[in-house]
Amino acid sequence: MAPPAVPGGGAVAAGGGQQGQGQQRQQQGGMGQTITGIIRMAVFWYFISKFISPKKAPTDPSILISNLFQKGDSLDMWFYLSEQERFNDFNNEGALIWHETNIPYAIWGPESTRSLSLKYYPSEALKHNGTLYAHVFFARSGYPPDPSDPEYQPLAAFGRAHPVVAYLPKSKTDKRKSLLGDSKDSKEAEVVSQVVDDGQADSKDDGPVEWISYWKPNVTINLVDDFTKYPHNAVPPNIAPYLNVEPTSGNYFPTIFFNEFWLLRDKLIPLNETVTELTLNLEVGPISMTKWQLFMQIDQSFQVHRSYGSMLEGEADELKRVFLEGNPYLLVITMVVSMLHSVFDFLAFKNDIQFWNKNKSMEGLSAKSVVVSFISQLIVFLYLLDNDTSWMILASSGVGCCIEFWKIGKAMHIEIDRSGTIPMLRFRDRESYAGNKTKEYDDLAMKYLSYVLFLLVACSSVYSLMYERHKSWYSWILSSLTSCVYMFGFIMMCPQLFINYKLKSVAHLPWRQMTYKFLNTIIDDLFAFVIKMPTLHRLSVFRDDLIFLIYIYQRWVYPVDKSRVNEFGFGGEDDQASAGEVTAAKEEEKKTN
Hints:
Layout: E1 12-14, H1 31-51, E2 64-65, E3 74-82, E4 96-104, E5 114-121, H2 124-127, E6 133-140, E7 157-163, E8 165-170, H3 184-191, E9 210-215, E10 218-225, E11 230-231, E12 256-258, E13 269-270, E14 278-288, H4 289-307, H5 313-325, H6 328-358, H7 367-386, H8 391-411, E15 412-417, E16 424-429, H9 431-434, H10 437-467, H11 473-488, H12 494-503, H13 511-530, H14 535-557, H15 572-592
Parallel strand pairs: 10-14
Antiparallel strand pairs: 1-5, 2-11, 3-4, 3-6, 5-14, 6-7, 8-9, 9-13, 10-12, 15-16
Protein name: Cleft lip and palate transmembrane protein 1 homolog
Region (Disordered): 1-31, 572-593
InterPro entries: CLPTM1
């Protein structure tokens, strides 16, 4: 619960500004599917709420309520800032921040949109968790908004209040620390408090949750272009909470909407005793009924995703940032290919399972790469589990671990050794793998690549231990291994390239599954440009491109070897032999007849 407002304190307005930055959250995987799901849910909710309403008691259809104002009516606007939730001090010139006249209502043009940028000097109460409200009043041109004024008309003026300060929880200290001791950097880092999501501020933290106030640098006021005539007791449920009904006539005033859809969390400015001036950007303008409803439905869909654990708090802002900072044409392409990404991902999964399920021989395939792939997938799963990732991403990574372990059972013999006190799993090479040159080439490639990999892992881990902070030694091990999987994972794909080079053949590879994965990699490249993600993850996308290009080059250079089995476990010679047997049987049948 946010602390109560602190009364008192003066306010002065001026021009110019200062921007603050909050903590930025990183997005992890599945962004294209999330964007598609959010938009689909928003559109679904919009049409359901617009055309389907709950059954109401019988009413007189002739009793309708309508807008008290007409399209094009000229309005005057007053914008006040006060630390009181209810405002009636209209004579206070210091509280009046902005005044505009002759704003045409529901007219789309430059004359209906006004803006102002200024500096606000906070009071001492506001610096210490105080509250500040924006009070916006509209009236027909020539009429005052003050009810105590003799010329005041109740049907000609309306207004609404909105907080300019947001309260968010924060952690007392950063739980990460330098594992080598209390260095100067680690002490300074622990003093600085970090803002956390609402979902993370739970009872597991020691002591009460501390709340701090944040300044909203942008305030956008929209008048909804709505002239719908609603039944007086059957207003749609998504409209009713925002409808300002005048009690005597039963009609409604124009809806005032404080648009914070594009106000990202990292744009909020923390308030404390060191803040001397704040930037305030004001804008007033019209908004269509459809756009207003779409904004609200998208926000509701974000809340639904967060309640089900399929979206973290920061991911909503990251999705909005894509539309704010991305190229519009590139965004359209991204939306289209995100659907293709899901299709290719499913086809790659299906063909991967099909290949290993029907595979009869490990000749030409790297068994060690399969084992290393499982270890890498397990490291990533444990890392995501340690960093409180959403359950959807965890479930996807967990299923991937199970599939990689199942593939080990297809590539090698897995036996349970019960000779000791604790049963142990023992892995034994298959005869088709150990009885030819494949194992020799695989061992040779892994031998030299492991030297390079171990050196890179050691250097990266030592650097992370010395210059980065971690929650525990377990977190350091996981983060170091995960960084190595991202940065040096392509090294583990090199043994298969080496085997292809020595055998001068690629007929043993699952080309259908690799083709779908390559198409998904191209789509991931596109997402790497338009979606904010960790640098290591972005680099891991492009290193996959290099490996796949080498695979394609090898397929072009090496001729087709009919003696090797394909992705379905059959070789070209088997097909020729079968065809020869069929032809001989037909010839024998003709002779008999």
